[in-house]
Amino acid sequence: GVTRHYKFDIRLKNVTRLCKTKTIVTVNGKFPGPRVVAREGDRLVIKVVNHVSNNVSIHWHGIRQLQSGWADGPAYVTQCPIQTGQSYVYNFTITGQRGTLWWHAHISWMRATLYGPLIIYPQHNASYPFAKPHKEVPIIFGEWWNANTEAVINQALVTGAGPNVSDSYTINGLPGPLYNCSAKDTFKLKVKPGKTYMLRIINAALNDDLFFRIANHTMAVVEADALYVKPFETDIIVITPGQTTNVLLKTHHNPQQTTFVMVARPYFTGQGTFDNSTIAGILMYDDDHHNSPPSSSNNISIKNLSIPTLPPINSTSFVSNFTNKFRSLASVKFPANVPRNVDKHFFFTVGLGSNPCPKNQTCQGPTNSSKFAASVNNVSMILPNTALLQSYFFKKSNGLYTSDFPSVPLVSFNYTGTPPNNTNVSNGTKVVVLPFNTSVEVVMQDTSILGAESHPLHLHGYNFYVVGQGFGNFDPKNDPANYNLVDPVERNTVGVPSGGWVAIRFLADNPGVWLMHCHFDVHLSWGLRMAWIVLDGKLPNQKLLPPPADLPMC
Ligand code: C2O
Fold it and tell me: Which domains does the chain have, with CATH numbers?
C-alpha cells in the first residue's frame, strides 16, 4: 500500500439552502465534505486543523483501526477534542477492508455539517465479485436545519424536550424540488443508457432511517457497510444512519423518458414529532444520441414526472423483510468467520425512558417529568471529561469509569404488551472489560418504552455478524436454535427492530476502547451508548500501539 495525505481545515462557510443563508462548520469550505479515497492496504494520514470556536473530532466510521484506536475519533472516548487553533493527525492503515464507508464529526451534533464519503478500492490486483461498473457515484443522505444544530441540541438538553426536527433531508447536500424554495438545489445523477452504475449510498442523516427508490428502476444490493453481500434485487432500499449500501443500477437501453425521480423519506415508528417530508433528486439520461437541444438543466420541474411511492412511514414489516435479505458472501475468497462458540453472552436492553429517576440526577423519563433519557441496560452513559482510552492506557482511571457495566438489565421486563414504566435508569460511565480474543454475543432488545422504536446500533473498531433477529421478547431457550451461523450478514451498524431484538457476534481481537451506541444523534445525546475495553493480547501485533505525540489533551 501507499501513504495518502489529506488536510482537513475546519472552517466556517456561509451556505444557502431553502432560501436561507447560515454559517456552518465545514471541512475545507465544502458541504458535504471532501471525499477521502484509498485502497485496501494503504495508510491514511489526515491532518485536521481546527480554525473554528467549536471543539471537533473526526471519526472514520467503519474503519477497524487495528492497533490504532487513537485514530478512531469519538470525543472523550478515544481522544480529547481538537480545540480551537489545535490540530491532530489521524494516522491509520486500512487492513482487510474495501468498500464504502464515511467519516463524520463525533462530538455533540457537529456531524450535521461535517461528513463525507470514505471510499476504499480493492487492491490493485483484486477485483469486485461482480462486473466492474461503468461509473461509481456516492449518494450521501443528510439532514438540514435552518437553525444552528448545536443550538437545537443544546436547547433540547436544557429544556428536556425532544429537539426540533430538521427542515429538510438532503441528497449530496441538496434538498430537492419538493421543498419550498429548493428546486435549484436538486441532485442530478446523469447516466447513459444500457450501463451499470454503482451507487455508494450512505445515510448520514442525524435521526432517521430512510427508504430510497428510483422511479422505474430496480437496484441490485451488492455490499453493506463495506462488506460484500450475496446480490439481491430490490425496488426500494432501507438504510439506517451509519449504514452504507452499495447497489448496482442498470440503466434502460431505450428509456421511455429522459428523466426519472428518485426519492427518500423516513421510516419512523416512535412517538412525538417527526418529519415525513421527502427528498427528491433526478436520474437524468444523457440524450446526446437523440437530437434534442441540451436541456437548461438548472430548474428542474418535476410536476410532470411521477413520484415513486414508498412504504408507509411506520412499515416495520417492509423493513424486516428487506433486512432479512442480507447474507454475507461466505465464499472461499470472502469467508464468513462467524464465532461458533461464545465465551461471553450479553443481553442489552436499548431504549428510551426512565421513571423514576434516581434522586439528584437529571435522567427523568418521559412519563411524569421533564427530561428524556436513553440507556443500555438501564445505564445512561455520561461521557467523562478525559478520554477513556487515555485514562485506560496510562492507567489513570481515577474513578473516571468503572468496569461494572451490567451484562444483563438490572430489572427484567416483559417487553411486549404494556411497556414497563420503571426502568430504574441511572447515569454512569461504566465499561465492559474483555480479554483479547473473547468471542462475544450480544442480544439487543428494544424496550418499546415510548412506543416500539428501531435503534441503529453501531459498534466502533469491529464488524459483527448479525446471527438472528425477531419480534417480541427474545427467547433464550428457543431463538438461538434458529441462528444463522453459515452466511449471516457482517456489518458495523444494525437496526434493532422496532418491538424486537437482534443478536450479533464478534471476536474481540482489536485492543482498545470502543464505543457502541445508537446512531440516532438524539438518542446518543440522551445516553444510549456504552463502551468496551478490549485488553492487549500476548503477541506484538495484538497490542494497542502508543498514542501519537500530538494526541489532544483535555
Ligand atoms: Cu458513525 Cu460513533 O459513529
Answer: 1-126 (2.60.40.420), 130-328 (2.60.40.420), 344-542 (2.60.40.420)
